[in-house]
Design brief:
By secondary structure, the protein is an alpha/beta fold. The protein is 41% helix and 19% strand. It is globular, with a radius of gyration of 19 Å. Bound molecules: ligand NAX. The site of ligand NAX has 29 residues, from helix 1.
Length: 327
């Protein structure tokens, strides 16, 4: 048996974590031969609830679950962590403007970045889920000067999976028959779900579906799926978000299947003309614990406009919190 790895999770008593932690403990994220130590982090007022979650985890008697530790601060919770899943964030309250939301979360994620820098394992891999995820990832990474920005990602795999699931239902295929979906940009309604590279059973997806459906139904449906789920359930996506976190970390650590493309929010290196210095969802492949942007994809005029729109939104978000970034 391997040595256990340390996985820190913030927001560990929240809705997403209530699915996520059980999947991790069952070996779905790091593999069925990898024991895990869960370092669970919550706000002080939620510690009692967190103790309940820890009891349930214990009661599952997972063979791969080595230890559970509970923390009411990130400085303790991130200690020696190999993986950090930043799920908790301040939700938008009544009367709160988006700029207020960006600012309060900027403070939270700045502290988390500093704590990762000072206490986590040098090779820690960080996945930011808490919204606004892309900009929170930027703030955390900028506050961790001793870590590489490539150690930080944000979650756009949920959008990727949504696009795949919706296309599968529409075309009559199954999700495993579909490859090459790309989510570009922000985890927000400006994201661009691109099917130009997508295939269904190896054949171009766009030759098998109606272009009007793609433009007028598919794209807005993927962009607004989160809102549709809130309208229907009265609660936001939780199990599907947990599944996406497991998928994104699994692929980052253990690699994508040969030929498979997935979407990940990562720091832009200027690829596809996207301004450097923002976290942007790109098509990637993963191998040996690293991701690489898939290059050479042709961007037509229709796609370019959508890339520009989502890039602009991220630049606007960055402008709101720019004064809080360390120089
Ligand atoms: P919940 O409100 O159920 O849980 C969040 C938990 O985080 C709470 O228990 C809270 O006490 C805790 N928390 C808040 N600030 C914290 C901090 N500074 N340190 C530690 N814990 C903290 O929300 P949930 O449904 O679990 O969603 C969590 C976050 O994921 C939200 O920000 C949500 O907007 C975001 N999402 C992001 C998605 C993505 O694809 N990037 C999709 C799903 C989800 O909407």
């Amino acid at each position: 048996m391997r040595r256990p790895v340390r996985i820190a999770v913030t927001g560990a008593a929240g809705a997403i974590s209530y699915s996520l932690l059980f999947k991790i403990a069952a070996g779905e994220m790091m593999g069925k031969d990898q024991p895990v130590i869960l370092q669970l982090i919550e706000l002080p007022h939620a510690m009692e609830s967190l103790r309940g979650v820890a009891m349930e985890l214990e009661d599952c008697a997972y063979p791969l679950l080595h230890t559970i530790t509970l923390h009411d601060n990130v400085e303790d919770g991130f200690k020696s962590a190999h993986y950090a899943l930043l799920v908790g964030a301040r939700p938008r309250g009544p009367g709160m403007e988006r700029s207020d939301l960006l600012e309060v979360n900027a403070e939270i994620f700045a502290r988390q970045g500093r704590a990762l820098n000072d206490f986590a394992n040098r090779d820690v891999k960080v996945l930011v889920t808490g919204n606004p995820a892309n900009t929170n990832a930027l703030i955390a990474s900028r506050n961790a000067p001793n870590l590489s920005p490539s150690q930080f990602t944000c979650l756009t795999r949920l959008d990727h999976n949504r696009a795949k699931g919706i296309l599968a239902s529409h075309s009559g295929a199954t999700a495993r028959d579909i490859n090459g979906i790309i989510i570009w940009g922000n985890h927000s309604p400006t994201q661009y779900p691109d099917l130009h590279q997508a295939t269904i059973l190896g054949e171009p997806a766009l030759s098998q579906i109606d272009m009007d459906w793609y433009r007028d139904v598919f794209i807005p449906q993927v962009q607004q799926r989160g809102g549709a789920i809130i309208d229907a359930r009265g609660l936001s996506s939780a199990a599907s978000a947990a599944q996406a976190i497991v998928n994104q970390m699994h692929d980052w650590v253990l690699g994508t299947d040969p030929g498979e493309i997935v979407s990940m929010g990562i720091l832009s290196d200027g690829s596809y003309g996207i301004e450097k210095g923002i976290f942007f969802s790109f098509p990637v492949r993963c191998n040996y614990g690293r991701y690489q942007i898939v290059r050479g994809i042709e961007i037509n005029e229709f796609s370019q406009q959508r890339l520009n729109d989502t890039e602009q939104e991220l630049l606007d978000e960055k402008a709101v919190i720019e004064h809080l970034l360390p120089k």
